[in-house]
Specification:
mainly alpha
């Protein structure tokens, strides 16, 4: 892979934390402005910026997930393990697309401004925010990651998963063996 898993993980976690803080700050400013009968535009713009950055990050995540899936399917050594996990990868992709739909809806709703058409018609909330999330949670409950990840996962000194990984000499990783005994 061209990018280390730790970089991918911490990149997405960092962006998610920052965009969540932005959205909370924007929503708090909106509430404060409305309570004080002031213009909530600044708060709405901060909220909108947080949602826009989150949407972009989610788009990048979906691209990385797609590239990962394509890389797995092209790896002749990994074909048997890919085939056994194809349902999980597909479920993850579908659940992610549903959450992405919800994120894009929130972006459009916020871009319209407070008390706009999308925000005052409950049918949009039910079909584009609530329902996709419920379905995504249901999908991930059935195809839970714990069912598809190695059960005897060992962690090396650099905190990377090593269970079931063979060394360049073809021998089983001794760290995986040590943790299984321990």
């Amino acid at each position: 892979w061209w990018l280390a898993p730790k970089v991918i993980l911490w990149g997405f976690v960092t962006v998610d934390i920052l965009t969540t803080i932005m959205q909370i700050a924007g929503a708090a400013l909106i509430g404060s402005s409305q309570s004080n009968q002031k213009d909530p535009t600044t708060g709405n713009n901060i909220l909108l910026a947080g949602l826009a950055i989150q949407s972009f990050s989610f788009t990048v995540f979906l691209v990385v997930l797609t590239l990962f899936r394509l890389a797995l399917s092209k790896d002749p050594k990994g074909q048997s393990s890919v085939q056994t996990k194809i349902w999980f990868i597909s479920a993850l992709a579908l659940a992610s697309l549903l959450v992405y739909l919800r994120t894009l809806f929130r972006l459009a709703e916020t871009a319209e401004g407070l008390f706009s058409y999308l925000s005052i018609h409950e049918v949009f909330f039910g079909t584009l925010e609530f329902t996709p999330v419920v379905i995504a949670v249901g999908i991930m409950a059935v195809w839970h990651p714990g069912r598809w990840l190695p059960h005897n996962l060992a962690v090396s000194s650099d905190h990377s998963p090593t269970a079931g990984v063979k060394t360049s000499s073809g021998k089983q990783n001794p760290l995986a063996d040590a943790s299984a005994k321990g």
